[in-house]
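Exercise: predict the structure of this protein bound to guanine.
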Amino acid sequence: MQLLDGNLCAEQIRQEITQKVDAIKASGQRAPHLAAVLVGNDGASENYVAFKVKDCAQVGFESTTIRLPDTVTEDELLAKVAELNADDGIDGFIVQLPLPKHIDENKIILAIDAKKDVDGFSPVSVGKLNLGLPTFISATPNGIMELLARYKIETEGKHCVVLGRSNIVGTPMAVLMSRNTNPGNATVTIAHSRTKNLKELCLSADILIVAIGKTEFVTADMVKQGAVVIDVGQTRVPDTTKKNGFRNVGDVDFDNVKEKCSYITYVTGGVGPMTRASLLQNTLKAHQAR
Ligand code: GUN
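Solution:
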């Protein structure tokens, strides 16, 4: 079994981006600038945005965090999105999800200018991805493709089972793995909560990508010997032995599943850092396109 080291690959990507940013600055242009809108005080979202800001600093990007209270109205948030769309000093921005219940997330995503949609969530970005056109690709699936590429994992003709059908991960992941690219060219099945014979299906997977949001859902009896297993799940579980009071648990029962895998990611240091690196790649792309 080999661990797919997302920290290592993400660091390589950050170094590549840093070199490009140095060249941009040397040519007299301003650095790429990412803005993040953070609504409320959700601990996980705060953490994610703090990491994004730190990543920007490391590669020489500018970053701006816009904090809004969880009482913000939908109209106020839409006004902020319009302001960011029009701001020439910002190349791309994200609105950190989830949003409070009284705000329609789709309405917010629809309002983001596709040219600045570095999350790749807008209908234009998703449509272009489906058509195989250049676009911003959602960071988590893009990061997984980078990980597979950098470890030279063979995907052509393989059966890839994607557990989960979210707009952000499962669905774009399935599109990317089925495209005529390398990595890609896999035969893809999307499985979800209503899928019958899930265990048998998973056992037929050469590559199993798990984004189902249920802790330790995939157990060793569901995994074929030699499979590649990618765990997207990351759930905070209370743990009084930890300084911060919680630990992160993935969607895969790592300790038992790892024995059967050729390659596997761990809940930390796997997909997460690759997602963050992909956001930096998208922000650089947004800057270059302007
Ligand atoms: N919440 C969890 N993951 C993401 C992400 O990639 N982008 C945004 N905007 N919100 C998220």
